[in-house]
Amino acid sequence: MKLSALFDNAPDIEIENLMVDSRDVLPNSIFFCIKGMIHDGHRYVNAAIKNGAVCVVHSEDIKRNNANVVYIKVRDVTAALNQVAACFYGYPSKKMVVYGVTGTNGKSSIACMIRNLLNPVYACGYIGTISIEYGDTKLPPLLTTPDIVPLQQILHDMAQAGMKACALEISSIGLEQHRTDSVDVDIAIFTNLTHDHLDYHGTMENYFEAKKRLFDQLKPDGTAITNKDDPHGMAIVADCPARVVTYGVLEKADYEAKDIQLNADKTIFTLVHDGSEYPVQTNLVAMFNLYNLLAVIAALHEGGLPIEQILEQLNTIPQIEGRMERIEEGQPFNIIVDFAHTPDGLEQIFKFASAITPKEKRIISVFGSAGKRDTKKRPVFGQLADKYCDLIILTEDDPRDEDPIQIAEEIAAGIQKTNRIIIESRYDAIRQAVEVANVGDTILILGKGDETFIYREFGREPWMSDPAAVRDALRKYYFETEEEDEDETVE
């Protein structure tokens, strides 16, 4: 693409790449001098030119000492990058119906359900914490919400592959860093707002304002879908220029659930919308998943799907990997793997476990807390587990350069009465839970979901994933032990 097509009054030189990291070797590229939390791109202009930049976009005065380079000064480099990236990749989000999902918990579940339920009707991609998926392509995740350039490139690839829609997880940090400013969101969904990312945002008010950006920036002909039962649900859409649609259980809403029956293997309720009532049965379980499902129904129906067409698919919703994933290998106790990593997320899982576990049986939890992230929630995790669990096994969870044992001790500070042990190795912690479980118990493996890596001091280290670790431990240490015991009895 010609530089003149990206900037007014620019020469007709060919641009092949967009560069934000001066260390990347990208010939015929534009280098954007982004100011990050640690590094300022203005300091690395010469390195960028050496690695292929033929144009430099900057906001501060810099030395223009290379006659072969075009220098363009702008007021806001990030805003310029958003505009240029969208144009460079052909405005891909305008070619699809984009469902943007934000909130503390539920983003992945809602976005994946939108894709799974929409795909039989017309092709839908997914970008989020679990993966990047479209058509037959499945790629590992980048960030929950990728950075500006890779996000536009992924959307371009989806459009090229024939996707007509995209379900996009939009994080508060992604919004704060303007990663989605040039994404044309058609339907924005708010799930809930509870304690998370305060290490980055500082206060709940700042966290709320970051989320609110999505709805403040929504186009007038878009749709905002919000959880009316959440304390922040109506405030977050207070200044939204788009049409607002609500969902909920406790208050009257545009999409409302009543006569709710929560079971261990299914949920039954009546959906109330626009004066009509619809009987619903779904294989999803737990109250928080009911809220997720209401958001999905609202989004898909507002996007044009008839309610009857949506509801007929709800009894066989595909299992979302690492999200309330039941591990069934023939063992006589429950095992659930979930991504829960916030106080509210943990409490919702604990409440569900309490509902499905007989009074005389135990709830065994295995979890930790991420290093270099929101340390204030660690003792809160301990308090919540202390309230609901009968055995707590604390272990590593993305420790980065912190000591996993020290993190576990900080969680344990909130535990007053429940038996707890610390096992640093995540696999050994899962193995221990499997080995001590009795018939009818419930094991909760929390925090990592289906992630196949653990962040350590040096970066990502491969991890077999929690579901794989559970199945491996069952096979090696539960069923094998049973067989050995039977052999000894026969003898």
Q: What's the architecture of the largest domain in CATH terms?
A: 3-Layer(aba) Sandwich
CATH superfamily of the largest domain: Mur-like, catalytic domain
In spatial order, strands of the major sheet run 8-7-6-9-5-10-11-12-13-14-15
The count of β-strands is 23
Q: What's the CATH first level of the largest domain?
A: Alpha Beta
Give the structural class.
Answer: alpha/beta
What CATH calls the topology of the largest domain is: UDP-N-acetylmuramoyl-L-alanine:D-glutamate ligase
* Fraction in helix: 25-40%
Instruction: Characterize the largest beta sheet: strand count, sense, and whether it forms a barrel.
Output: 11 strands, mixed
The 3D shape can be described as: globular
Residue share in β-strands: 15-25%
State the end-to-end CA separation.
79 Å
Low-confidence stretches: 482-491
Into how many domains do the coordinates divide?
Answer: 3
Give the radius of gyration: 25 Å
**Nearest-integer average pLDDT:** 93
Number of helices: 14
Write up this protein.
Strand 22 and strand 23 form a beta hairpin. The chain has 3 domains: 86 residues, Udp-n-acetylmuramoylalanyl-d-glutamate--2,6- Diaminopimelate Ligase, Chain: A, domain 1 (3-Layer(aba) Sandwich); 222 residues, Mur-like, catalytic domain (UDP-N-acetylmuramoyl-L-alanine:D-glutamate ligase), CATH 3.40.1190; 158 residues, Mur ligase, C-terminal domain (Protein-Tyrosine Phosphatase, Chain A). It has 14 helices and 23 strands. Helix 2 runs parallel beside helix 4 and helix 11 crosses helix 12. The chain is globular and about 80 Å long. It is α/β, with parallel strands linked by helices and 491 residues long. The chain starts with 16 loop residues before the first strand and ends with a helix. The strands form 4 sheets. It has an 11-stranded mixed sheet, with helices on both faces. The protein is 32% helix and 22% strand.
